[in-house]
Amino acid sequence: MSTETQQPTPAGSTAALGTASNSAAAKPSIRIAGLTKIYQMGSETVHALRGVDLVINRNEFVAIMGPSGSGKSTMMNVLGCLDKPTAGTFWLEDERVDQLGATALARVRNEHIGFVFQSFELLNRATALENVMLPLLYSRKHWLGARRLAKAALARVGLGNRMTHRPNELSGGQRQRVAIARALVNEPSLLLADEPTGNLDSRTSEEIIALFRELHDQGQTIVIVTHEEDVASNAERIVRLRDGRVFSDFVTREDPVHGEFLKMMMRQAVEAAGDGGTVPLATAGLPGSPAPQAAGGSEVKP
Q1: Half-sphere exposure in the Cβ direction for 40 (13 Å, CA)
Q2: Domains in the chain, please, with CATH?
Q3: pLDDT tens per residue across span 273-286
Q4: Are 34 and 53 in contact (CB under 8 A)?
Q5: Which of 238, 242, 248 lies closest to 47, judged by CA?
Q6: Are 52 and 75 in contact (CB under 8 A)?
Q7: Tens digits of per-residue pLDDT, 51-90?
Q8: What is the pTM (predicted TM-score) of this model?
């Protein structure tokens, strides 16, 4: 473990179109400076991350977006301590983690990070309660109270009456709730979600995102990696990657790309209403989006 005491304060990417402002009083949860990740694939050298600077404060809800090949999956792996950077510094809470070995990284993952995956990653033969208990069995702090804590986590996500059900007895939304309960059971400082609605229908996706908003309101730091603008709408801030660099970093309501997306959705809503249709759920539920107006100026009701 590093004995270094000086902690870096990344200064936002100079390549970014804009930078989201952070409160001076907020305490950072994640501090990254000059983060680089290089892979060697045969004779080809792949620069997945190219000197990324990023600060995420405690209790922020941040969406990381980018096209295929932008580096967002590599960024998630590094943030989740599943992969080590080639260069640069990474502080999680008050610990520098980029120089830690495999055993220490496993401890950090178990104690500080909760993972939510697109494909749920549940054990098919285990009950919901047993799936949620699993991280606690490897915890130095909580293994004695594993059953009690797992029950509380399932109740927190609305599955107190599904504890003995196995994954094949649950709906897709319920399985993702089990996965979220498993991510929360160790009381992590960071909840890291990779396309958490990717395998869900639109209505169930809205329910899961509403749960994320509720968790954020309770003080949870959340980072979602997604390619869906309507999912990113729910975050306070959108960080966009391109070619391994931070392309833009805006408070969501000030993000110009997201603003164009909202305008497009509003136009579609007005056109649907004008044709006697209904406002799409994804449009009507977008946080911060104004109520669409019909041709006569009246509000379109979803």
Answers
A1: 3
A2: 58-84+101-253 (3.40.50.300), 255-302 (no CATH)
A3: 776 655 554 444 45
A4: yes
A5: 242
A6: yes
A7: 999 999 999 999 999 998 999 999 999 999 999 999 999 9
A8: 0.81
